[in-house]
Amino acid sequence: MTIKDIARLAGVSVSTVSRVLNDHPDVSKAAKEKVLAIVNEYNYIPNTSARELGKSSSDNIGVVVRGMSNPFYTKIITEVGARIENAGYTMVLQQIGTSDDEILTAARMERDKKLLGIIFLGGKLNYTKEQVSTINVPFVCCTFNNQYGNLDKADYSSVCIDDNQAAYDAVEYLYKEGHRRIAVLLSGPDDGSVSQVRFAGYERALNDFGLDLDENLIISINSFNIADAYEGMNEWLRNGYDFDSVFAISDNMAMGAMKALREKGKDIPKDVALIAIDGIEASEYMNPVLSTLCQPMDDMGSEAVKQVVGLIKGKINHKHIVLPTTLRAGETLR
Amino acid sequence: MTIKDIARLAGVSVSTVSRVLNDHPDVSKAAKEKVLAIVNEYNYIPNTSARELGKSSSDNIGVVVRGMSNPFYTKIITEVGARIENAGYTMVLQQIGTSDDEILTAARMERDKKLLGIIFLGGKLNYTKEQVSTINVPFVCCTFNNQYGNLDKADYSSVCIDDNQAAYDAVEYLYKEGHRRIAVLLSGPDDGSVSQVRFAGYERALNDFGLDLDENLIISINSFNIADAYEGMNEWLRNGYDFDSVFAISDNMAMGAMKALREKGKDIPKDVALIAIDGIEASEYMNPVLSTLCQPMDDMGSEAVKQVVGLIKGKINHKHIVLPTTLRAGETLR
DNA sequence: CTGAAAGCGCTAACAA
DNA sequence: TTGTTAGCGCTTTCAG
User: Fold this and answer.
1) A54-162+297-325 and A163-295 share one CATH topology?
2) Model pTM score
3) Is there a contact between B255 and A287 if contact means CB atoms under 8 Å apart?
4) pLDDT of B203-240, one tens digit each?
5) Contact A139/A118 with Cβ under 8 angstroms?
6) Is residue B97 predicted with pLDDT exceeding 90?
7) What mean pLDDT do residues B150-169 have?
8) Does the structural domain A54-162+297-325 have CATH classification 3.30.10.20?
């Protein structure tokens, strides 16, 4: 069943069918009704590939998201979707696995879907000029930036929190409560991810507060996984190092750590205080409720859209927006 | 940059370029290298739409998943993806929102991607013959079946647990511990979803155990949301009804309920015992660890793939597989 | 308001 | 081993 069949069945030309299918004006009511009737009768479904191939332009904005199941992005996506719709564009969502290349994905989408702009939700901090040269439409990085890459600030946009400062703040909360043996739970101290940035904030804070960086207090797992955080924490606890608190670089990892601590008989926050960064919904349901620095997800989403749309319309230049975090008091600090 | 440009630049014909791009045999080493060089130099990316349009067949198996962020499906998808790959096919994943129509999505995909078969991960229990008539390739429902629809059993496959029995079992665990005032937390008693099936199991169990169905003990929220479960439980608790335990139809909802109970000063499981169905990872990290009947996610995934592949190869007929659940003891039962 | 026809970028016979 | 060419199913001028 193709557009040709419908045309024949409806007794009109394919262009007329195409017009009614695309809500074009200049189609007589009679023709429209006739076509629609046939379309319904035969359950005709236009071929998307052919459609995209034939089209000369689109109103598509691409959103490529790292991590299919990352709850952190869910809220942002909702917001982004609504705002894009609202601005009169269409969101084309593409989720990719951890091993996929977001730049390549974006480049493909740009050509396939004729994108006008792109929003990256999560991604690497070290894109190079050469890599992004395959992308020819404006793009904005949401929740991260290019601090380990060599992009020109005038060539891309970003909206994120100050991860270094957030980590600093987290440590400061612990410090002000009197904690001096502050462990850090991270993915890798220099894995080029946001983990590294937040670790730098941790280091900076220790330094400012006159605390020595103790290698034994660095709990490094090689993922952002809740199960790995649990295992990693378990293993680390066996060393019996002296500590009074933990700064986890993400809510998810903190949740894994909580279980390990609890099983070890450590009371949170009496024996061990805990703070993290992110503010995902799940950590609100933990017992005790996780104390964490929340990223302003809605604002990040709407700002990101505001950016691409502005860029698409050529009304603004690339900007780098830093949004503030807010503390969710929770119950893991005392 | 199209295949034509590459052909010209490499001094060969488009078909030769197409051949090397698709790893066809019968291409001289020289030609292959030449083409690849140009492709790399210009960062050429083939247009997917054109590719799909031109192709006469594919090795694609479609997977349509309800709920972008449902952690329950994540593990299954991983398993399904691996198995499909393993069987020599390609997985085409499509996630849809709660308001989208999975049948329509599947029908579209079938045509666009030239699918050989489809796996539905989550979906409605009441498809009608007419609805699925738009689908012309074999499909299998994973984690659900058609018990509220009118499909012929010989026309589709399914792999799922016995939801009614699982609910029955859950209630039985509570009953055997001496609980008699068993509340049920569900989405809707007759919303046509799995909630309804599990509620039926709850009713059957009460009946078998000689307990009366008490309307006051039915906590109905209109979603599967953790936040809504929390709110709903909170609200219900204000009534002050007498109860000694809760059967939540899903882990996620149970997690919301736990917070509400805790805030009300109820100790779990001392004051209130709790059991659910699903066995998602997150509920393992709750404090106390949620007691729940786990769905065998890996098995469901691999069985689903075994089914489609068998159907595609024409080696088997439609089957309806029921897999057993296993109890995760947890800490919310005593 | 409608139709004919030329693409869109690629694949796949079919010849050579 | 290679090139020519006819589609794939749709959109979009351009005439009428």
Assistant:
1) yes
2) 0.94
3) no
4) 999 999 999 999 999 999 999 999 999 999 999 999 99
5) yes
6) no
7) 97
8) no
Read off the pLDDT of residues B63-79 as tens digits, 9 standing for 90 and up: 999 987 788 898 999 99
Q: With CB atoms and an 8 Å threshold, state whether A45 touches B107.
A: yes
Contact A142, A63 (CB under 8 A): no
Q: Take residue A271 and report the two structure tokens written for it.
A: 């024996």
Q: Which residue has the tokens 């952690």?
A: B71
pLDDT for position A70:
81
pLDDT over 70, % of chain B: 100
CB B17 within 8 A of CB B6: yes
CATH architecture of the region B163-295: 3-Layer(aba) Sandwich (3.40)
DSSP H helices in chain B: 3-10, 14-21, 29-42, 48-54, 71-86, 102-113, 129-132, 163-176, 194-208, 226-237, 251-263, 297-312
Looking at residue A97, its pLDDT comes to 85
A266 touches chain B (CB under 8 A): no
Short-list A207, A183, A205, A184, CA closest to A195: A184
CB-CB contact of B50 with B17 (8 Å)? no
**To which residue do tokens 């992308």 refer?**
A135
Q: With contact defined as beta carbons under 8 Å apart, do B288 and A258 qualify?
A: no
Integer distance in angstroms from CA A161 to C1' D4? 57
B272: CB partners within 8 A, 6+ apart: B243, B244, B245, B246, B261, B266
pLDDT exceeds cutoff 90 at B315: no
Give the separation between CA B268 and CA B266, rounded to whole angstroms.
Answer: 6
- At A99 the pLDDT is 86
B319: pLDDT strictly greater than 90: yes
CB contact under 8 A, B281 and A107: no
What pLDDT is recorded for position B99?
Answer: 86
User: Which residues of chain B lie closer than 8 angstroms to A282, CB-CB?
Assistant: 226, 255, 282
What is the mean pLDDT of the segment spanning B97-111? 93
pLDDT above 90 for B115? yes
Radius of gyration of chain B (CA): 25
Ordered by start, the domain boundaries in chain B are 3-41, 54-162+297-325, 163-295
Q: Determine the residue type at A329.
A: A
Query: B1 near B44, Cβ under 8 Å?
Result: yes
Closest nucleotide C1' to the C-alpha of A14: C3
Spacing of A44 CA from D15 C1' in Å: 30
Confidence band of B334 (pLDDT split at 50, 70, 90): confident
A112 contact B CB<8A: yes
CB within 8 Å: B259 and A77: no
Q: How would you write A138-202 as a 3-class SS string?
A: CEEEECCCCCCCCCCHHHCEEEEECHHHHHHHHHHHHHHCCCCCEEEEECCCCCCCHHHHHHHHH
Q: B285 contacts in A (CB within 8 Å)? A: 226, 230, 255-256, 258-259, 286
Q: Which residues of A touch B108 (CB under 8 A)?
A: 45, 48
| Chain A interface includes B189 (CB < 8 A) | no
Residue A126: CB partners within 8 Å, gap ≥ 6?
A: A146, A148, A149, A192
Cβ-defined contact of A256 to B285 (cutoff 8 Å): yes
Task: Say how far apart CA A6 and CA A203 lie, in whole Å.
Answer: 67
A53 interaction partners in chain B (CB closer than 8 Å): 47, 49-50, 53
Token duo for residue B69 = 């962020």
CB A210 within 8 A of CB A171: no
Low-confidence ranges of chain A (pLDDT < 70): none
